[in-house]
Design goal:
Blueprint lengths: L1 H16 L13 H15 L8 E11 L2 E9 L4 E11 L2 E9 L1
Antiparallel strand pairs: 1-2, 2-3, 3-4
Amino acid sequence: MERWIAQVCAGIAEVAAGARPAANMHRVVSPSVLSRLRLLHTAAASRGNAPIQRTASVRVVHVSPVTVEACAVVQGRQRCQAVAVQLRRRGDRWLVTAAEVK
C-alpha cells in the first residue's frame, strides 16, 4: 500500500505544480479533492514547473480499518514538497478524501 500511496502523492504534487492535468487523478480522489486539485493546477500551470523526480519517503498511519492517513516527501527538480492525504476505503478500493500540498 505504501508504494501506491507514494505514487498517488507524487501525482497530487504534479497536479499542484501544474505538470499534470487534475483529470488524471479522478479515479483515486473524491469529487471535492478533484475540484481543489483543478484549482491548484490552474493557478500553477502558468509557472511551468517540472514533474516530480521521485518520492523520497512515505509514512502511513492506519486510523481505523477504513481510514488511513499518510504523508510523503516528493522531490522535484528544484525543491521538495510535503503531501498529506487521508484515504477511506470505498468497497474494494481506497479513495483520497482529503489532500494538502506544502
